């Protein structure tokens, strides 16, 4: 799981949703926790509310009620969600809870009995009903006759595009299918319409997300192709924006998307949750892949598109993981030479089947393995970035600070989770959302520095 960083929290980043308030207008605040998929849910809820005449408050004090969109994937995320609910109750007092943790209403009300309502993940109508009950709408027929543009909680030049909900996998460490249900893919026309609107509004990068992106459309009884994700990627690539694929399982048909990357239609970037490499650990996880086969797939992808960037996440300290199994993971990482790598220490999640597995790894051993894993991953990253020095590349500007230093991203970098490229000379005139060409002149462990050309 990748949690939203603090500057993507609407309660901590008021500039994202700041707007003027008309007299008598009811206002709602939003705290969004968890993954980008939850952030999309928050955007949809706020868009619906604003279309009904509600204002969006950038702080607790200015809100008539606060919605907390929770995460319930890990126990640590549950604790963060309960903390955010408590903070909203203390600062505002009128709180509606939704999101993944909302699938366990007794857990929430047991800790915070004063919340006004609890709804589960992607239950948009129930959230709206709860808001209506707590803060009745008061639309102005002259001002609110036409809905405003969709609310975005990300910078204007990039946006997450959620193409499906739910997951059909039964990984033992994960409870997402229990919280969000089986795979339900959005109609392709609806996805493309949303993408077109975003690009027309100035979005320069579309970040395609779901629980299982490569399975998109396989839940349809009638479809033009066996794996619709390839055609969707091709269609999105025609819109003129960067298209970045996240949460892609390494099924064999993923190879069909790689030529789109070589052609430049889709960014040469895949975010694939490998999780481990040893076949016995993958079997205990109930994962659908094996380390040796994924190495073959990686080699095939790189043959088709040599400059492809591969990002993945792994779990160390999974129940029963032996030193030999962990060493296999390290050896696999040496062979795979992934560009971007994240790692989590295993932790129990209420309701997950992995809790019942024998031979849980002690916390201190998890930490020791995490340190060794990240040391190797960092060394690989540093060596790969060093090879980019001297290259002339296109980057997307994310921000320019008061000192004129521009924070940018290359095609190899997703926002908030990967590295950055910094321009610290003659960059004060740049604007967020601009594409510029730079020559890389310095590399670090995860970041690059360059100059405009």
UniProtKB/TrEMBL annotation:
Top-level EC class: transferase
Molecular function GO labels: 4 iron, 4 sulfur cluster binding; aspartic acid methylthiotransferase activity; metal ion binding; protein methylthiotransferase activity
Localisation per UniProt entry: Cytoplasm
SUPFAM superfamilies the record matches: Radical SAM enzymes
Region (Disordered): 1-25
Sequence positions that bind [4Fe-4S] cluster 1: 35, 71, 100
Positions of [4Fe-4S] cluster 2 binding: 167, 171, 174
PROSITE patterns: MTTASE_N, RADICAL_SAM, TRAM
Domain TRAM: from-to ranges: 386-453
Domain of life: Bacteria
Biological processes per GO annotation: tRNA modification
UniProt cross-references to InterPro entries, sorted A to Z: Elp3/MiaA/NifB-like_rSAM, Methylthiotransferase, Methylthiotransferase_N, Methylthiotransferase_N_sf, NA-bd_OB-fold, Ribosomal_uS12_MeSTrfase_RimO, rSAM, rSAM_horseshoe
EC numbers for this chain: 2.8.4.4
Cofactor(s) this protein requires: [4Fe-4S] cluster
Keywords: 4Fe-4S, Cytoplasm, Iron, Iron-sulfur, Metal-binding, Ribonucleoprotein, Ribosomal protein, S-adenosyl-L-methionine, Transferase
Cofactor stoichiometry and binding remark: Binds 2 [4Fe-4S] clusters. One cluster is coordinated with 3 cysteines and an exchangeable S-adenosyl-L-methionine.
GO cellular component: cytosol; ribosome
Catalytic activity line of the entry: L-aspartate(89)-[ribosomal protein uS12]-hydrogen + (sulfur carrier)-SH + AH2 + 2 S-adenosyl-L-methionine = 3-methylsulfanyl-L-aspartate(89)-[ribosomal protein uS12]-hydrogen + (sulfur carrier)-H + 5'-deoxyadenosine + L-methionine + A + S-adenosyl-L-homocysteine + 2 H(+)
MTTase N-terminal domain span: 26-136
Domain Radical SAM core intervals: 153-383
Family: Belongs to the methylthiotransferase family. RimO subfamily.
NCBIfam families per record: 30S ribosomal protein S12 methylthiotransferase RimO, MiaB/RimO family radical SAM methylthiotransferase
Function per UniProt: Catalyzes the methylthiolation of an aspartic acid residue of ribosomal protein uS12.
Name of the protein in question: Ribosomal protein uS12 methylthiotransferase RimO
Name of the gene: rimO
């Amino acid at each position: 799981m990748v949690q939203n960083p603090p500057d993507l929290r609407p309660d901590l980043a008021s500039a994202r949703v700041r707007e003027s308030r008309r007299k008598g207008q009811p206002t709602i605040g939003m705290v969004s926790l968890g993954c980008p998929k939850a952030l999309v849910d928050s955007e949809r809820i706020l868009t619906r509310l604003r279309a009904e005449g509600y204002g969006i408050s950038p702080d607790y004090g200015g809100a008539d009620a606060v919605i907390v969109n929770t995460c319930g994937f890990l126990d640590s995320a549950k604790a963060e969600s309960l903390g955010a609910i408590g903070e909203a109750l203390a600062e505002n007092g009128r709180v509606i809870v939704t999101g993944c943790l909302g699938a366990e209403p007794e857990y929430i009300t047991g800790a915070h009995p004063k919340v006004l309502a609890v709804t589960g993940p992607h239950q948009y109508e129930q959230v709206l009903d709860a808001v209506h009950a707590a803060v009745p709408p008061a639309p102005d027929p002259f001002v609110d006759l036409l809905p405003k543009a969709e609310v975005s909680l990300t910078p204007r030049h990039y946006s997450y595009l959620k193409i499906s909900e739910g997951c059909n996998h039964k990984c033992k460490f994960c409870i997402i299918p229990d919280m969000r249900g089986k795979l339900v893919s959005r109609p392709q026309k609806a996805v493309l319409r949303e993408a077109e609107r975003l690009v027309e509004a100035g979005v320069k990068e579309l970040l395609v997300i779901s629980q299982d992106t490569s399975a998109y459309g396989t839940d349809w009884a009638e479809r033009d192709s066996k794996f619709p994700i390839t055609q969707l990627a091709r269609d999105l690539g025609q819109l003129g924006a960067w298209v970045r694929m996240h949460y892609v399982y390494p099924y064999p048909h993923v190879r069909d998307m790689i030529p789109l990357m070589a052609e430049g239609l889709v960014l040469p970037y895949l975010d694939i949750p490998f999780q481990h490499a040893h076949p016995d650990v993958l079997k205990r996880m109930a994962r659908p892949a094996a380390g040796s086969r994924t190495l073959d797939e990686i080699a095939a992808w790189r043959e088709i598109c040599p400059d492809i960037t591969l990002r993945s996440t792994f779990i160390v300290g999974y129940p029963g993981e032996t030193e030999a199994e962990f060493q296999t993971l390290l050896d696999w990482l040496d062979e795979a030479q992934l560009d971007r790598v994240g790692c989590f220490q295993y932790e129990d999640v209420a309701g997950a089947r992995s809790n019942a597995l024998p031979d849980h790894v002690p916390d201190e051993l998890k930490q020791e393995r995490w340190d060794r894993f990240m040391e190797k991953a960092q060394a690989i990253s540093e060596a790969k970035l060093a090879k980019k020095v001297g290259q002339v590349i296109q980057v997307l500007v994310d921000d320019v600070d008061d000192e004129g230093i521009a924070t940018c991203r290359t095609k190899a970098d997703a926002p908030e989770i990967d590295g950055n490229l910094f321009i610290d000379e003659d960059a004060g005139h740049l604007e967020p959302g601009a594409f510029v060409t730079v020559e890389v002149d310095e590399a670090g462990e995860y970041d690059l520095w360059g100059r405009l050309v």
